[in-house]
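Deliverable D4.2, example record:
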Amino acid sequence: MTTYAFPFTSQLPGEPAPEFDLLRTRQPVARVRLPTGDEAWLVTGYEDNRVVLSDVRFSRALTTRPDAPRLQPIPSDPSALVSMDPPDHTRLRRLVQPAFGNRRVAALRPVIERKVEDLIDDLAEEGPPADLVSRLAGPLPIAVICELLGVPARDRNKISGWVGVMLSLTRFPPPQVAGARAELKDYLASLVAAKRDEPADDLLSELIAARDSGGRLSEEELVMMGTTVLAGGFLSTASEIALSFLCLFRHPDQLALLVKCPELLDAAVDELLRYNALTTGGGLLRIATEDVELGGVRIRAGEAVLPAISAANRDPGVFPDAHRFDVTRAENPHLTFGLGLHYCLGARLARSELELALAVTLRKLPRLGPAVPVDRLPVQDGQLIRGLAELPVTW
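Output generated by the structure prediction step:
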């Protein structure tokens, strides 16, 4: 059986690599060699991805073992929510889930909308051209997640720097990745100490109270929860916002339709989430706890499995004319936020930020368009999340 080098090279930002289509057709469960030199099974079909994402026989906790196969330069932290299996995962998720529930996100929507309006007003006042990444897509999500968690605004830039290094595949050496994670954890440990003395109305203060009053999480879990929320809470959303505008620029007929018919925004958001290949391929690496038959292949206990969500979201067996971007697409069961136990905790919040970034920007700047040829924008290789370094726009 052929072993393919992974990750594959995307030809354009936001587009999945062509190898995904070939493998989904010819070898839907394929052997790949990861940047670390470890090997894994890459899963490209929609239904097989659903199995990997939801079946308890595919463990996240086993990926934290020192000798476990891994995708990124350093092992996963065992105290991180995303690196846990039940019952520990269930215990911690119950603590933090209300902060990302419908009520809290609904209360945040006016805050998010005002922030987008302020950012776009500032951008419009200075006049075109402008960089939509540094002026909107980047500042919005980090401001929101820091406000939710209780992180001072003055610290946003250094947090952004740490997270960018932490989510590296090959761009930074392992010691630098480990150092960034350690620095972020040290910073949050100091912030926890400060908030113990002066609690506030924020998620970190709530978690401290849960720790100190009932011992429902350890001190390490408390610090790592803050790290996880920051690491997952803004870079992926920032990249999704930038790639969504880029996708609309590449499909001007769909952009014009959305400007003319803003009631299509809900469907457009789902289609953008489905269509954009945000990462190198998809979900979190898992380890099989026992032998499992998947896609005609026997996966042995202890072997790694990587769900390729970007490939699953373009499966023509589920999405008719899957490579066509269509803001009117009705049925759209994409897997962008995952499935099962590890369904993205911040899915509602990320969706609200993307929706409001689009709605406010297109309302205020209905003639928004690219200031450079969009096909010349480079793919961000070497990173787990493939966003955009910049997106020059005019209006």
